[in-house]
UniProtKB/TrEMBL annotation:
Protein name: Uncharacterized protein
TM region(s), chain numbering: 20-40
UniProt keywords, alphabetically: Membrane, Transmembrane, Transmembrane helix
Domain of life: Eukaryota
């Protein structure tokens, strides 16, 4: 498995197990998929930066 695919599978698993399937949850799901795709494509992107970005997005989305 490529790393990005594993990330994507983990993201899908996390959201299918979580009960928050409202519009916000779907948007966050898509953003996390995008982040996983970005980490797969751009290796110079630190994953900690993506975690920081996604947590910032989550804090605004709540």
């Amino acid at each position: 498995f490529p790393d990005g695919l594993v990330d994507l599978m983990l993201v899908v698993l996390r959201y299918t197990l979580s009960p928050t399937w409202n519009l916000g949850g779907i948007i966050l799901f898509l953003l996390d998929c995008l982040a996983a795709a970005l980490t797969a494509r751009l290796r110079f992107f630190a994953s900690s930066d993506l975690v920081l970005i996604s947590s910032l997005i989550r804090s605004f989305a709540v």
